[in-house]
Target: Up-regulated in Daf-2 domain-containing protein
Amino acid sequence: MATHQKASIEIVNNWGGTLLSVSVAHKYSDEYKNDHSWENIMNGESTSSTMVDFNTGWLTTGRDWWVVTWIDDKGDTYITDPMNFRGIVDFLERIGSDIAEPVAAISAWVATGSPEPTSKAIAAAVAVTSAVTKRFLNSEGTNGYKQHILREEDKNGPTKIIIKKGEIEFQSNSGTSTTGFRKM
Model:
């Protein structure tokens, strides 16, 4: 019998600089879809937690799938890259026109050389990362997603998504998994 569960997630910035925006898309198979965004996360800081939905119990067959995208304080955009090949490239080509204007606003801020992001640059970063996660959630496939399965014990503590220079790490009570990323 399947039991609906909720687990908290939070972002940990170990990137080495400020993250203007981070968005996470989470799918539990085709049953639950969650997306969340955070803005202006300083290096070494964690975000407040938010909830995602999943099932546990005997004979549950669902899986948890994740996509993380972020924009750093240099205006560069990154996305998790679990080696699911061409699907992600096709996806990015489809959203190019949706994010062109916000990317231009981020580039304009970067060109000023100011170390502090403007509210316009942060808003543009949020627009880009949110557009990417929403497009992923509107697809029923899991190409481009990282699998990190949540278990019953994960409802009791946060699943931390740690953004580092070399990898993304998913830490939950039931275990840890990692994935690579790439610059978009």
